[in-house]
Design a protein that fits this description.
alpha/beta; Rossmann fold; Heat Shock Protein 90; 2 domains; five-stranded mixed sheet; three-stranded parallel sheet; rod-shaped; binds adenosine-5'-triphosphate; binds magnesium ion
Length: 347
């Protein structure tokens, strides 16, 4: 208790004795400076603080007491003791880190015990919350590291599979088999690339569409050994209405990446036969909560009878199955070349 009135200190000691009995350890100081020193040295469970001290006001005392504590956590539970005249200041003290206040002339052992209980519980709770928060932050950071590591390893493993497929493709005697293995290799690499981006990204839950599409495009152009002077590739992704870049959640990124892989592959494989030149464009934008994605080429166009063909080839089947995974709808049209449009809910 920090109070310059010896009578008040005595009264409180007696009242507290009634509440706590032999459990009570009561220390008293009559001045703020010695009070602060004692509080810091003894770390009491609760401080009873008078508003008017000879060398400081109660508010100054509180400010000094809490100066080293990380706000909003008070250093100690404090109950202000005040008379009617300093009632407004007592209210102010609550803002300065006191937990409760009592009017001196109405003090009783019951009220005192209750105020101390409330004050200590409040500070304990704040402390527990802060510790809980700190441990959550730590554990999220650890999970981030683990997740990052996981993406890294998945990427490495997928690259091993891709390398095996490449070796098999090289060793295959049949040209058709080689081509099929190469495409499988590209599909595996398309997924590996997404894990690589997730591993490198700040936010482990999403990838930037522009980046992903550009990487895919570059990878496929080089896999097919395409002369960029003959066929050009371009990615145009409109930012979202609020100016932020278009991103894909992890669960969307992999199917979208695979779909893009199939379509860009198709354009490279089918649209420009016999050394034809042209361009392949990937376009994306957010429209009314949906993401519209298009792969457009100005090549020879899909065959007229494609829609009515009985046996569906693997590429478009993959597109169909994947699009269904995230409630996407798609169409493949013959225009100036081939236009593929996919639309799916953004979130
Ligand atoms: N951009 C395109 N330009 C011209 N024709 C295309 C284009 N995309 C697809 N096609 C035609 O549609 C067919 C079906 O495509 P799909 O991707 O399903 O099979 P694929 O490419 O032949 O084989 P894979 O199963 O390896 O993908 C192709 O065989 C091709 O004739
Ligand atoms: Mg295909």
């Amino acid at each position: 208790m920090v109070d310059d009135s010896a009578a008040d200190r005595n009264l409180c000691r007696i009242l507290l004795d009634e509440v706590y009995g032999p459990d009570l350890e009561f220390f008293e100081e009559s001045e703020a400076l010695t009070g602060l020193r004692t509080c810091r040295g003894l770390a009491p469970d609760c401080i009873l603080l008078d508003y008017n001290l000879p060398d400081m006001t109660g508010l100054e005392f509180l400010a000094e007491l809490n100066s080293a504590a990380p706000l909003p956590e008070p250093a100690f539970p404090v109950v202000m003791l005040t008379d009617l005249n300093s009632y407004p200041m007592a209210l102010e003290a609550l803002r300065f880190g006191a937990q409760d206040f009592l009017l001196k002339d109405r003090i009783s052992s019951h009220h005192l015990g209750l105020a101390i209980l409330k004050a200590t519980q409040k500070v304990d709770l704040i402390r527990e919350l802060r510790e809980e928060h700190a441990s959550l932050v730590r554990s999220v950071a650890e999970k981030d590291v683990l997740l990052r590591e996981l993406h890294h390893r998945v990427k490495n493993n997928l690259q091993i599979i891709a390398s095996l497929l490449r070796l098999q493709a090289k060793a295959a005697a049949d040209e058709g088999v080689t081509a099929v293995l190469r495409e499988s290799q590209n599909r595996v690499e398309a997924i590996a690339m997404i894990h690589e981006q997730l591993y490198e990204s700040v936010d482990l839950r999403q990838v930037h569409l522009t980046h992903q599409a550009n990487l895919l495009m570059t990878n496929l152009f080089s896999a097919f050994g395409v002369d960029r002077a003959r066929i050009s590739g371009q990615v145009t992704v409109c930012p979202r209405p609020d100016g932020s870049p278009l991103v894909l959640r992890v669960d969307q990124a992999i199917p979208v990446g695979l779909i893009l892989n199939e379509l860009i592959t198709n354009s490279l494989k089918h649209a420009f036969p016999d050394g034809r030149s042209g361009s392949i464009r990937v376009e994306a934008q957010n429209r009314g909560g949906r993401l519209d994605l298009a792969v457009i080429d100005d090549g020879i166009g899909v065959p007229e009878d494609l829609a009515t063909r009985k046996t569906k080839s693997l590429g478009l089947q993959i597109v169909e199955i994947l699009a269904r995974q995230f409630a996407g709808t798609w169409e493949l049209k013959r225009e100036a070349g081939t236009v593929f449009r996919l639309s799916f809910p953004e979130r």
